[in-house]
Specification:
Strand 8, helix 5 and strand 9 form a beta-alpha-beta unit. The protein starts with a strand and ends with a strand. It has 515 residues and is mainly beta. It has 7 helices and 27 strands. It is globular.
Length: 515
């Protein structure tokens, strides 16, 4: 074989030793021949499976043989070149422009499913990655201070590039969690809030503030103890200056005394791209780089899962299921033996729930189009596994936790929590336009919707004493003591956020540990 570079296109069948996943440049590898081109190796020094060996020369090289986890940080070039390390959520009322802002910054349309496109709203959690660049000047001359010195591009953009304005250098790699704004999708929004480091609160300039879910979403990020908030006054092109200034006063009054009380308000037009560069600059200069735990055993919470196989694919072309989520701690590496908890849930002869974790191996790691040899906390990562893809399709693994075999937290079927209830319902307007109804105390035997990490499940209150409650979960959850929990109650056929709490202890579910 004389050619070092082989160009292969999607859907063309080629021998297995070649890669046939995307339209990109791949290298030819056999047991006896290896070109002088870049080859990826595992930690054991052996070449990794050529089918996942995607060479992307414009990005920094990740080599597992040289990996020193204790020297990594969220701005390490080999890390931010390929994956996002900061999660920024978009929150706010339905149709205020959350998905449009994400597209303006990343170029990715998060409204992508048929039923979402038909209604033009986000229903599932959307996600998109973007690199943010800073202009460092041209021909040795620094750029003129002021707007226009920051810009964004897709996740697969080269780390440094030049145009007529100067040389642009990678500053941040951000992952956007696009939350649905519709009131009936509050549980989905809470799943997204579990992985956020910062949030952009969208307020439409042509509507009064606050709208129902503006209040509810802001309360949700307060529950998650999120400190970094940026307020975007969107659709500014649709109103006059006087109206925009008046609404800014409404926004300041609305957020006063909340976690967003000191947040700046940036007027933008996401559709026209006005002030998007200012948003990029703020994300680079004002949002602190979050502290990450790289040394603990890896812990990824699953917020999406997929079957990537096309209908009619041949048996030899089938790939295992993909779990998408955020690594909360630790580092996942290609080839790691991992498990997914709780896995498959069943009942024993006594009617008690039991958990059968799924054991698998990591065969690929992706951050959008960028392949990874290792993935660190922050950003949304796709983990290719050997799991039967029927178990991952249609988000069936949402709420599960992925980590090294034998190193994940326990699975609880019942939790004891300390809780705090809101005084009034948020996101609900009364017939006379007044404040929402008071939140009633928890009562024994009532059913709540509980959010733990990315898990949404029903919970029956089996006991209440002062600010402590015992809740029997309808679906076992892999979690630990100290984890935050959000509580929602059925009000007028919709689940409404009523409070939050912290897990103090739990009743463990039996684990069936056979492979």
């Amino acid at each position: 074989m004389n050619n070092n570079n082989i160009y292969i296109y999607t859907y063309i069948h080629v021998p297995e030793e070649y890669i046939h996943i995307h339209t990109q440049r791949y290298r030819y590898i056999t047991d006896t021949i290896m070109t002088e081109a870049t080859v990826y190796y595992g930690a054991d020094g052996k070449p990794l499976d050529a089918r996942y060996n995607i060479i992307q020369d414009h990005l920094s090289v990740q080599d597992l043989r040289n990996l020193k986890i204790d020297e990594l940080n969220p701005l390490t070039p080999e890390v931010i070149s390929r994956q996002a390390t900061i999660n920024v959520g978009t929150i706010g009322h339905v149709a205020h422009g959350k998905s449009t802002v994400v597209k303006a910054i990343s170029g990715v349309q998060t409204v992508r499913f048929k039923h979402e496109l038909e209604r033009n709203i986000t229903i599932k959690l959307g996600y998109a990655n973007a690199k943010i660049f800073k202009n460092i000047g041209k021909d040795g001359v620094a750029p003129t201070p002021g707007p226009g010195n920051y810009c964004s591009a897709g996740s697969d953009k080269a780390d440094t590039w030049t145009d007529e304005r100067g040389t642009w250098q990678l500053e941040r790699h951000v992952s956007f969690v696009d939350c649905p704004g519709h009131d009936i999708l509050m549980a989905t929004m809470l799943n997204g809030a579990a992985v956020m480091d910062a949030a952009m609160l969208l307020v439409a300039g042509n509507e009064t503030c606050p709208q129902p879910q503006t209040s509810e979403h802001l309360a949700a990020v307060e529950i998650m103890r999120l400190q970094n908030i940026l307020i975007l006054q969107n659709k500014i092109d649709l109103v006059k200056e006087e109206a925009a200034l008046q609404q800014q006063e409404e926004i300041k009054k609305f957020v006063a005394g909340t976690v967003a009380g000191e947040a700046p308000i940036i007027p933008i037009s996401a559709v026209l791209g006005y002030n998007v560069d200012i948003v990029c600059e703020y994300l680079c200069t004002k949002i602190p780089v979050p502290r990450r735990d790289f040394l603990s055993s890896p812990h990824l919470i699953v917020i999406r899962s997929f079957d990537v196989n096309k209908p009619g694919a041949d048996a030899e072309e089938l790939q295992g299921g993909v779990a998408g989520g955020c690594i909360m701690r630790g580092v996942l590496k290609m080839g790691d033996e991992v498990e997914v908890r709780p896995g498959l849930i069943s009942k024993n002869s006594k009617g008690e729930a039991q958990s059968s974790p799924l054991f698998t191996r990591i065969v690929s790691l992706y951050a959008e189009k960028n392949n990874l040899m290792y993935a660190v906390p922050g950003g949304l990562i796709g983990v290719g596994t050997t799991i039967d893809p029927t178990l991952t399709r249609s988000d069936r693994l949402v709420g599960q936790v992925l980590g090294l075999k034998g190193h994940l937290p326990d699975v609880f079927s019942e939790v004891e929590i300390s809780f705090f209830l809101l005084r009034r319902l948020l996101g609900v307007t009364t017939s006379d336009g007044g404040k929402g109804a008071r939140v009633q105390k928890l009562s024994k035997n009532e059913t709540l919707l509980v959010n733990i990490g990315s898990t949404s499940t029903g919970g029956k209150v089996v006991g209440v004493k002062k600010d402590m409650a015992k809740i029997a979960l309808m679906q076992p959850v892999c979690t630990r003591e100290g984890e935050k929990i959000a509580l929602s109650r059925r009000v007028e056929k919709h689940w409404r956020l009523i409070g939050w709490g912290e897990i103090k202890r739990g009743s463990k579910t039996a684990l069936m540990m056979s492979d």
